[in-house]
Amino acid sequence: MALDWLIGTNLPQFWKNYLAHFEKEEKQEVHKRYVVFDMETTGLNWREDVILSIGAIGINDNAIEIKDFFEIFIRQEKFNPQSIAFSGVFKDEEEKYVEAEAMIQFLNFIKDATLVSHNINLDIEMINLALKRLELGRLKNSFMDTNALYQRWQHHVEDTQVSLDEVCDALKINKSDRLTASGNAYTTALVFLKLKAKLGF
Hints:
Blueprint: H1 13-20, E1 33-41, E2 51-60, E3 63-74, E4 96-97, H2 99-110, E5 114-117, H3 120-133, E6 143-145, H4 146-154, H5 164-171, H6 181-199
Parallel strand pairs: 1-5, 3-4, 5-6
Antiparallel strand pairs: 1-2, 2-3
Helix pairs in contact: 4-6, 5-6
C-alpha cells in the first residue's frame, strides 16, 4: 500500500472521508449507531506499547448487529510475548496488516459512531498515537466507557476500576468468549446493552 501522503502535503482521501462524517449538519438520529470494540496490545503503556489486534461490533436500535462486525490483526516487528495476556493473538493462519492499513480499515468501519469499550481511555490513546505516527489528527468520535457506566449504576466513586470479568459476574453475563479482541468486544457489547437499559439512556 502506498502511503504517499506521508511525504506530501495533501491529506489522504480516507482521512477526508472520515472527517466528512463529522461535518454534516446536526440532525435528529432515530437510530444511533454504537461501535463496541476491544484491542489486544503488547502492554498497558499507551506511549510505548502497540496494538496487535482490534475486534469491533455494531449496535443499532438496542440490538447487536452480528453482520456489522470488524476484526483485524496487525503485524508488529517488536513485542514481548510475555506481556500479552492471551496467546490467541498469535494465530499464524490469520492475515496480518501493517498498522497504517489497519487504521484505515478501522476508521472506515467506525465512521461517526459512538465508540464503546471497557476502560476505554487506554484504547483511545493507543489509536490516537497510531494515527499520529501517520501524521494525522485524533479520533473525532464521542465515546463511552462501560467501566464508568457500571460505576454510575452502582453509585461508586467515578475513578474506581473494575475488570470486565467482575462486571460480567455482577450482570450475570457469560464470559466464555474472552480469548480474543472480537470475543471481548461481543462480551462488552452485552455488558453495554444491559447497563444502557439499567441507566435508561
